[in-house]
Amino acid sequence: MTKHALIVGATGITGSNLAEHLLANGGWEVSGLSRSQSRIEGVKTLACDLVDGASVEKALAGVSPSHVFITAWSRQETEAQNCEVNGAIVRNVLNALAGRGVQHVALTTGTKHYLGPFESYAKSQPETPFREEQERLPGENFYYVQEDEVFAAAARDGFTWSIHRPHTLIGYAVGNAMNMAATLGAYAAICKETGRPFVFPGSPEQWQAATDVTDVRLLARHLAWAATHSQAANLAFNVVNGEIFRWKWLWPRLASYFGLDAAPYPGQPTPLEEQMADAAPVWDALVAKHGLAPNRLSQVASFWHSDADLGRQIETFNDMGRSRKLGFLDYQDTLASFTDAFDRLRADRIIP
């Protein structure tokens, strides 16, 4: 029987990769709820403003998905505003679908569940590896608000749910706020063009500490697995590659991919936002020189977000035991996560 997936945020890094995975594996009809048109053939776009309840209701009129995947968020100036806006996104969608026979709702959040919001990000050291049963941190966190909206709607409507907490997402996406692969690809291209050193921009702690990341393709497989296997119902999951690494090991290997020498680590952060503050004209020249897609640097790279991840002063990695015990055994090589994304970004003329 064909399952009908509604992907909320279908044009983002998670939503677009999930749509590709579901369509490639058959048995799914896929609708995408987003502000803009999905680029993926086979996705029926339902355009709306996710923050506007009336707009969401209109877009979902007559739509009865069996599975809902919520992958959208909207960055606001304060965490209080993040809670208000991102809680409303979940509430608007689930209220519009009440009584439509939804079987399962999967919500994607992230490791800020353990590290706190941007305003107080990584200011304390939770015990590593992070485990799903750890207590929520005190204070506001829009991930908690989104979870609570899912729990309330599940109690009302009787569907099962799953919560998915990836770490730093690595994969193919353009114009996304959380895409480190495209960010580092643009940074490498600018370094190569200008002769500036390809220096790790983060903190000494991140340079030295054990960490992990999440390949968005693995996340897509995990979302589909949890939505269709009863043993995963009503649980939260960390979702990472299953490989622990150190940036001091990975950085020279990324440099080699781009034909660069990795600069010696300077011993302190050199944030990308500062390094790349005047790089837009260089990028525009690269676009013209290499015949790239006409994207602005700000559309390709999210320097602020990569700075937040790479600038942490604490150790950060996640336990995957819950998924393993329940049958999800997928593993992803981390270097290949980056190089596969770079290959596709190059093939699509996003980076040179």
Automatic annotation (TrEMBL):
InterPro entries assigned:
NAD(P)-bd_dom_sf, PRISE-like_Rossmann-fold
In this chain the PRISE-like Rossmann-fold domain maps to: 67-352
Q: Spell out the protein name for this chain.
A: Nucleoside-diphosphate-sugar epimerase
